[in-house]
Write a structure and sequence with these properties.
Layout: H1 16-24, E1 30-34, E2 37-42, H2 47-56, E3 64-72, E4 118-126, E5 131-138, E6 146-148, H3 157-168, E7 171-173, E8 202-207, E9 212-217, H4 238-250
Parallel strand pairs: 2-5, 6-7
Antiparallel strand pairs: 1-2, 3-4, 4-5, 8-9
Amino acid sequence: MTDTPATSAPAAPVTLAQRIAARLGARIISATESLGETIVEVLPENWLAVAQALRDEADFHFEQCVDVCGVDYLSYGQAEWDTTDVSSTGFSRGVEGEGPGRFQWSNRPLVGAGHKRFAAVAQLLSIRNNQRVRIRCHAADDALPVVPSLTGIWPGANWFEREAFDLFGIVFEGHPDLRRILTDYGFVGHPFRKDFPLIGNVEVRYDEALGRVIYEPVTSVEPRVGVPRVVRDDSRYDQARAEGAANAATK
């Protein structure tokens, strides 16, 4: 009788991302870790089911929703500043021909290939397990972004979702009172969308002759873009990481 080699059992999930991926399977797109943070990508149709599981299952127990925000991925990864064929000094890296506020509408930035424009992002906290996770859901329709509301799972998400609706125009289906929270009720547009003019559409002033507040086209604001739209690597922790690795190697 010959001995058969023992087969080793598959390694049990260790990280939070691995445990989430093993437990939720096809209900999520991916669960990854980056810079010490766990990010879970979810389809809109699974948004509530994944959120419910992360809250209720003892292995996760994310009992608190710390924040919900919107993201506009319009022109994501596209740089409007010249960073290759210019000098490293002076103002030669400035915005090139983007027009008042940032650009002319006919030359507006476009959504990157294979990338949905709007996403809702929720930051979850497990006090019991001392863990955090970020879940993200891209709305299926760029023209009318709709994502299920998390208020039935975490009631505290109410005002967060109203803020994302106000500033990004993301509609949270099932929200009990979805209305603007920061801008005026008569405000037109959503000011955090990347195609919203930086100088705004109208300005407000009090007219002494009429005795009331009036709205008129912007004339007193000089359009100026001072912040580049460029995706950059975050190198703030590179030195600390390298020093930590060097110290560990000498022990």
